[in-house]
Amino acid sequence: MAQRSKSSPAWLHEHVNDPYVKRAQKDGYRARAAYKLLEINEKDKLIKQGTVLADLGSAPGSWSQIAAKLVGKTGKVFALDILPMDALDGVDFIQGDFREEAVLAEFERLLDNRALDLVICDMAPNMSGNDTIDQARSFYLCELALDFARGHLKTGGAFLVKVFQGSGYQEYMAAMREVFGTVQTRKPDASRNRSSEIYLLGKNKH
Predict the structure, then answer these.
(1) Domains along the chain with CATH numbers
(2) Is 162 known to be catalytic?
């Protein structure tokens, strides 16, 4: 299904009347996506006091907001994005492409020899409106995120990533199963029904 442009009257009407958008404004979250992570975490207890995690594609920062509150003083949140992101208490933000050596070097310097317990990724490409191109771009980002998780997660760690069902989905699921003991799907209530987005949760990294 074609994505609605973020300037279309239908998208704006839906967005303005979206109960999660209103809740996010009231609760002080930067985006409605906050509730997706809250719901998944309620079920799976991925983020707790002391968790060390990386948030890939973090801007505007709602997932990092949630994570920073949950990890407490003993945990650590690293956020990475090509886009700028306003500072958040308890979050180390690196602006840049995490495929680039300089960005990875800065991340590893901040990580300071700690292994990550968790990688979370709510990235999506800029949508062109061409489903085939958008799907390919989306899975390319997901593959990069999986590669990052494979390289930085501790044994037994977990990975939560947004994907879009369609071409490439089964292959990506198979790739995740090579890295994690279990791979489960999650579709939180805050994820719009008409959206093909789904979250894959890999647990127990080999």
Answers:
(1) 31-205 (3.40.50.150)
(2) yes
